[in-house]
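thoughts on these tokens:
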Amino acid sequence: MWERLFKLRENQTNIRTEILGGITTFVTMAYIIVVNPAILSFAGIPKGPSTVATILSAIFGCLLMGVYANRPIAVAPYMGENAFIAFGLATMGVGWQTRLGTVFVSGAVFALITAFKIRSWLANSISSSLKQSFAVGIGLFLAFIGLYETGIVTSFVAGMPVEALLVPNSSILHSPDVPVKIGNLREVPVLLAILGFLIISVLLYRRVRGAILIGIAATAIVGSMLGYGHAPQAITALPFAGQYSLSALAFHLDLAGVFKIAFLPILLTLFLMSFLDTLGTLVGVGAAGNMIDEKGNFPEIEKPMMVDATTCMFSALVGTSTSGAYIESATGIREGARTGLAAVTCAFLFGGSLFFIPLLEPLQELRYAYGPALIAVGVLMLGAVRRIDFEDMTELVPAFATIVMMLFTYNIGNGLTAGLLIYPLMKIFTGRIKELNWGSITLGVVCAIYFIFGLPH
């Protein structure tokens, strides 16, 4: 049955490797169970039902990705898009019901253009160097997240009094002269994170199966023994009842309010960010697992893209934000996962978490344990930089813009849009317009429209 469903032999893998990969991916992305509801609560969405909706979206997306697309890629509500839903629309006075309606409509548009193979046409029109820059940028982005989450790197203003940050004679905070600085390397959690990274790195060097997961577990055990963790307030809780009932959230989306001229910038922003996040993630994790072809294309990309579109609509119906492929899937892929069995494993773990929501809350605060895994995966993904054409400035400059904008704006979509816009401009301004195809031109125009009329965040 497993062979028929997931083609394990064809993908040169086995059940043990796939399950291990699925567990590793789950461990590195399970923070979304706690973080997503916390962010969406600022939009007025109640945390209890939102937690259940987040988990249900992850279960639905991971199962569909595993069984339909047969890819080892986990799906869950996106970071970034959830902040846009919660904070980016706050000044516009948009209610959370209408915000969920926007998520549903953008998912429906995804499904439509995927069915007509427009999404795959656009994806396959991107140059190989630009696609490799997606993997490099995402790797560095993951590493930066891990460094920041663990406290190895921190905000420049951390520990400073509020008065020092105020513009003179006003209540407005000024931007710091330096955005980040090294963290306090004398703090035990920071030292634990460094230890965890070294453990994972040594295990990877020795090609130990489960290196990332072993490193996470070992660091968590050491940290807990040193008292850096707290006991949960409860172990289990029944989903769909009491504070976790979905009745206040599911199917409360407002579709009629979405179809207004004033909502076009919102739809454009959600559409483009989610489209490019998914594309960048697929190419990035594909490169990490040698799943892309010699042209840098992701085979049968329509299937994971249709999963992404369908999960977006499902997410809106149950009451959460835009969902899609998760970059943390690279951790499981680096453990050897190559088929949908890893995604199905992830789905079952999310399903189990429905009954242990109180237990998960303290686990997700162990940033010193899962942060090093993100840094290690970032290191492993840097290899794609070798496949960027450094001799051709029309290829190198867009790739560079993609990487630095992705990293320094803390947003994958910003890097992708910058690179896709600069690429055709470089070809035109250097007299090499004949090298462009209609897909790259279309993407460049859409990205330009986004920067002019959208809501970059």
In short: The chain has a mean pLDDT of 86. The chain has one domain: 2-159+177-453. The two ends are 45 Å apart (CA to CA).
